[in-house]
What does this fold into?
Amino acid sequence: MTERINDPNAPARRDEIEGEGAIRGTARMEAFADGVFAIAFTLPIVEIVLPSTDSDGALLGAELGELVPEYAGYILASTVIGLYWVQHHFSGAIFRTTGHWFVIATVAFLAAIGFIAFPARVLAEHFADVAARPAAAHYWVISLTLLSLTWLLKWSVGVSHGHIDARLERDYAERLTRNFRIVAALNVVAAVLVFFHWQAGLALSGLLMAWLLLPPETPRYITEAPVIEGEG
Amino acid sequence: MTERINDPNAPARRDEIEGEGAIRGTARMEAFADGVFAIAFTLPIVEIVLPSTDSDGALLGAELGELVPEYAGYILASTVIGLYWVQHHFSGAIFRTTGHWFVIATVAFLAAIGFIAFPARVLAEHFADVAARPAAAHYWVISLTLLSLTWLLKWSVGVSHGHIDARLERDYAERLTRNFRIVAALNVVAAVLVFFHWQAGLALSGLLMAWLLLPPETPRYITEAPVIEGEG
Amino acid sequence: MTERINDPNAPARRDEIEGEGAIRGTARMEAFADGVFAIAFTLPIVEIVLPSTDSDGALLGAELGELVPEYAGYILASTVIGLYWVQHHFSGAIFRTTGHWFVIATVAFLAAIGFIAFPARVLAEHFADVAARPAAAHYWVISLTLLSLTWLLKWSVGVSHGHIDARLERDYAERLTRNFRIVAALNVVAAVLVFFHWQAGLALSGLLMAWLLLPPETPRYITEAPVIEGEG
Amino acid sequence: MTERINDPNAPARRDEIEGEGAIRGTARMEAFADGVFAIAFTLPIVEIVLPSTDSDGALLGAELGELVPEYAGYILASTVIGLYWVQHHFSGAIFRTTGHWFVIATVAFLAAIGFIAFPARVLAEHFADVAARPAAAHYWVISLTLLSLTWLLKWSVGVSHGHIDARLERDYAERLTRNFRIVAALNVVAAVLVFFHWQAGLALSGLLMAWLLLPPETPRYITEAPVIEGEG
It folds into this structure.
């Protein structure tokens, strides 16, 4: 995968690139990804089980309070999926086209997004049980690491196949690539660490998620800033 | 969070704003939000359990009739999520760009939208049990209040970070902000009231939802009315 | 609700109409509706229960065969929701704007779309039981009638609030309105008939669904045919 | 279904074609399809059952490991749905318009996409049981064949009703049609073969899925390559 040199003034569609199927704009790939994100984000609510109407009604308040681990699982999944969506939304302004291998890599990343609510529930619902904590932490941290690696894969395929907006400053995209590699590497560290000291692995993994809360660097363009999605 | 003064004739994209990542149009954020709304709106149907095919077939009609609380939960969730979607759809014509903190606040609001079908079921399915009513009402009113507060958060972040369409009359956006603050404050009142007199709290909360049925004020523009989404 | 007379050459956005909130193009309302349709269409798969891995593996083929009522429910729901989506897709080229009451009516129609998979399962899964057939038929036909009435409501609100593309020939929209009224009226007839002779009510209801298989009349424009969604 | 000869320089919208309802661009049909794909892709996660919090917490790691068949079912469904989405995404650049029968055929294809996660679970979760393997393989291969046939139906209806972009080289679309026919025919061979030698049928079916991993041929245009979705 060699990085292609783009002419910043060339049109986005480049059919002269053989072997990639139809090079398209990013709108529909973003739409599919937004759909998967939206569903993964919303589905966890079906896992919260309504207190039975057969039990004593006066206990309903207490029963709703006992659902705290379920609420925590919902919030944890929302946070991780939401923060990745924010990062994905941001990167949608960085890429300008899609091609075959880029959409394949995106599908792999989205499969990991669709899965992540399950480990979130494992961690949240089993955390109250001291004996279950180490296994729950292993599972969660490894899952987050796989998610981070599929993100790096998607990004790297997009960059190496020339889908980055050629009007961006070259340094800018390189800084992003370096950042994503560092984060993925630290996630791998967390996934190893969690087997030696699960609290430390979990903490490192949590810090790496918190990093996504920070706003990414503003894009810098060689030419004038383009308008993204008819902003009127 | 200071309100930025915009030149109404400036382009929507303002890359000179540092520390916000890529400022983008609202199309994809709206698409993600529409996805979450659509899923939250449609998912509750999976919670209605089909009468068993093992029981006497002649009883099917009666069994379907006994599902009234489930139907009520479906309708209640549809109403709340639908009305918030209408308000969100409306506000999509008010904002012109997105940025990092605005999408973060939107994610928080959407997590509350995704959750609201659960309290709707709690209220609808437990309401027939007199002993369960107060707790069900507490839970429902508090959930609606949290939803209302996340809406105000999203709106306020959008406004204070300069994402409002600068071509709108300044007074117009200020009136909307005031309205949303009043509604959120009244929701907080309802959430306190419901612990003293659950019927009153529930009634106030219901009135605040009914307010969403009223059409919002038509936007007023400084310059000529812009075309939103290529209306040809 | 009086029908407004539109100038066909006027722009789609008409902010001079007071009391309707922001008049917008149909893109985002269609997107929300497409989302609800897509979810309602796809969700029924979760209701098909996998044969248990605890039973004798040699019986798997037979167990999968016994799921025929579940498959029928899936196909029935897909057919009804799919055909309504086709009709909705078609009408998306007829409307040009949205407003407050039109989106409210659309939400009511979409709540009925989200619900329809449940009656489809009631009919398909209980049909094998002769004693359950009348009640299943009542439930299904009434549900389809309510769906048909919400469609008529949505259409009528859209037409009466001036959201129809003013470039269409006036006769064209009037013919569509008449057709939808006839179909809704016949659905009401089916919903009454099903209580006297369930087979006849079911048959009439089925014919009315089959009517949606027929292609609708091609739109006729006063001015030249507009391009819908940048078709390049 | 006779293939219509298109003037490559004609506009995409051709209202003079009677009996097809409103001919529209592909944007909204793609959006509905993307929605169904996204949901079908993401839903399988709800089928993975969380280990009970009532059992011994020290066993959690082992219980999570025993879910391997469930993980395999998730990955299998993601792979098939993901690869079909990639193919569908590609073909979205080939079609230029939609019409009544094309959307009907698309709905049939999407119903098959929505269903395919169920056979994936049948194969993955029952594969460990030697006695269940043949029936699981029959079910899976037949389901994939039906999916392949609905794809061919959708493609053929799109081509024969003149929805292909007329600016494409005629040979190009014909090569694609021939390829899809060969793949569908080989899927039918696999569906027959699987009843005589299930391992061979399964292997052939797997190879046909793997074929989707290969990038499709780059489109060739008579006129200059068009820009797809405003790529600015």
